[in-house]
Amino acid sequence: MTIQDLGNIGELIAAIATVATLVYLALQIRANTVAVRSESRGRIHTQSQTMGSVIGGSPQAADVFARGLADFDSLEPTEQMQFQFLFAMIESQADLSYHNFQLGLGGADWMEAMTAGVLELFETPGGARYWKLNGSKASPEFQNFVNQKLARTRKLHSAA
Questions:
Q1: What is the full DSSP assignment across 89-118?
Q2: Closest Cα partner for 107 from 152, 40, 43?
Q3: pLDDT tens digits, residue range 17-75?
């Protein structure tokens, strides 16, 4: 066996090792992506549970939230502030869901399910008022998403 033959064998071994390394890295990246998606969904579900606990766990908070959705201006100033904080929790969760979707961490069906209920809240008188007062604080991408969805819904309602 010549030195050239040994060099060729070395190159072959190096090529096989490179392919094996690339396969290993691809598997690690895939596993990491699954873990990130799972952690992201878990965080969003935790936020949903927190919102449910805050609003559902307090008759006073539930009352303020329900009255605020119906007529924001009928609330006392402290209740308006409370309503806005409660609504901000919901809006923040929807914004996070949308952001994760944009990063490829969830499918379109999942993102639509996570934001559908929030968009319905934005269509209430109090939700529309909240969005008018605070929508500019959301990420620009989420603002565009909400505004497009609301415009589409208004167009459907006016056509009916």
A1: HHHHHHHHHHHHHHTTSS-HHHHHHHHHHH
A2: 40
A3: 898 888 888 888 887 776 766 676 667 667 667 777 777 788 898 899 999 999 999 99
Task: Give the distance from CA 41 to its chain's centroid.
Answer: 8
**74 SS3 class:** helix
The length of the chain, given as a count of residues: 160
DSSP 124: S
How many alpha carbons fall within 13 Å on the CB side of residue 100?
A: 26
Question: Is there a contact between 94 and 142 (Cβ–Cβ < 8 Å)?
Answer: yes
Structural contact between residues 95 and 102, judged by C-beta atoms closer than 8 angstroms: no
Residue from 70, 96, 108, 143 nearest 151 by CA: 143
List the Cα angle 48/49/51 in 5-degree steps: 65
